[in-house]
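Before the break, one more example. Copy the sequence into your notebook; we will annotate it together after we see the structure.
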Amino acid sequence: MSHETDPSIAKPVRTAITEPFSYLKQVSRVKHQILGKYLGAWSGILGTKFKHLAYFDCFAGDGRYVDEYGVELPGSPQHGLQIASEFVSKSPGRSLTLGFIERDGSKAARLLDMLNSSAKPNGVFVKVFASDARDLSAHMISAITTRGIVVPTFFFVDPYGYPLPVPTLRTLLAIPKAELLVNLMWYRISMDLGNPVAWDRIDALFAHDDWPFEEFDAKSGPARERAFMDYFEKEIGAAYHVRFPMTYSPEDRVTSPENRRKYFLVHFSGHYAAPLAMKDVMYRARSALETIHTPTNQLQLFEVNGRSKRLDELKAELRSFSAGEQMTFLNLRIRTANLPFAEPEYRQVVKELDQEGRLRIERRESKRTGLTDGDLIQFN
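Here is what the structure looks like once it is written out:
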């Protein structure tokens, strides 16, 4: 076991834990749900082929949170530690290194105290860095790439609030088997786009000042939001990306919090299996967001005539396939992996298009009404 700070980084000053726990907003709990569920899937899949995995939380905080009733809640470090412990306990001979980066020295010290007092099985290695992610990026890259073996690595970053420029994100993503989960604070970026005094922050994000010439700068409202996110994803240049809008939390006390985007979680990867797994995690999280904003018995308010608008959007996308094209159900989802739809939504829409005569399902693996990865789909 290891509980350490890197010797090249200034160690946090150890302090008595007297500060109160922070309140964790309801929407932030959903974000942690997405992170935890995906980390579990990620470690389980990659751990079958690789002995060593790594995870870096680049804005870790101190992991000290409570809900509205004062009940302690886990932060992202606890989620990472739990997943790592479960992974190595079930996978003898495997290891998972956790790197937690927190620029506030006092928070880093409290985090280190918490991690040192937590039980960990052999094979879980923990490091706490009292530093800025930008200052540590070269160290992270070196630590991973100089080991002489491929170490699948997952990075959780907030490149605007805890600045990491896009070129650095591209470098991290270029590490073999690396993935990024980006917490992109759209509400702050949106305000800064309209404030010339703050444009240097946007320059720093992209590491250039050409962005004012992009089409999003001439748009407003939802159109600007979509165009900016498209541009950001293009700048990263990953083969696969999945975007999940995070609403304002009810505690933010803004008008119509469920209809406004506070920030986006964007997952970048280089292999199709990653977005397919992440979209299923996000699909389950979407219902959790809806429940936060609307009582369970009124979820139909998020729908049109009792039907999710998303299903009609997916149906429109699939109708664009040419007559005569054929592929398995799995290959259909791979070819459209950057669309924000999960497997259950594909399954429902493909069956509806089959009933409408827009395609034909040849059930090679499933039975009469099923639909599985190996079934063949032919568009009419």
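The two ends are 59 Å apart (CA to CA). The chain has a mean pLDDT of 90. Try to locate both features in your own notes.
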